[in-house]
Write a structure and sequence with these properties.
Distance between the termini: 64 Å
Shape: extended
Order of helices and strands: EEEHHHHHH
Radius of gyration: 29 Å
Strand content: 15-25%
Number of strands: 3
Helix content: 55-70%
Length: 187
Amino acid sequence: NKPCGSSKIVGSVCVKIREQRDCELEECTDAKIVFIQEKKSKDWLALLSTDILLPDEEIIRIYGKRWDIEVFFKVCKSNLALAREFQGRSYDMLTAATAIVFMRYAMLSIEARNKSDDRTIGELFYSYCQELQDIRFSQSLLLLLTRLIGILKETKPSNKNKLQEKMTELFLNALPSYLRCQLLLCA
């Protein structure tokens, strides 16, 4: 089982891992082992990380994400015939077969989510749209004029023609690219 909120950290220890090849000591690697225990039972798990500076909670969080990936591949191999139904030797065929299995998993995940959550993806989309309102035209015009005034304060060329050219150039360069393209198309 993956360690989530149902687990507690028992402790952690930093260790050195020695690699030995052909009776010679080659290299030592620093590692951190985090021991966690399920709250409801006596089962425990030891997680090893080679990044000893990570806090224990971060090691557990990363392991939880990696565990989701392991479950994904286990379901794909066991239930969706990832390695069994494909018999070709072509890389393109292998890629296509794998993509089809992954799409099956995605469809099953969406269906499982729809069964467990009353909100549909469309409803979630509209909920997010309501949270993020569009900027009003008056607000965008005020932002543009504020930027123009800032540019005018920054530049002080000697003659007025040069000021106007410089001001226009700086103003256009300060605009976002999509606005700049629209203004240049209209001109």
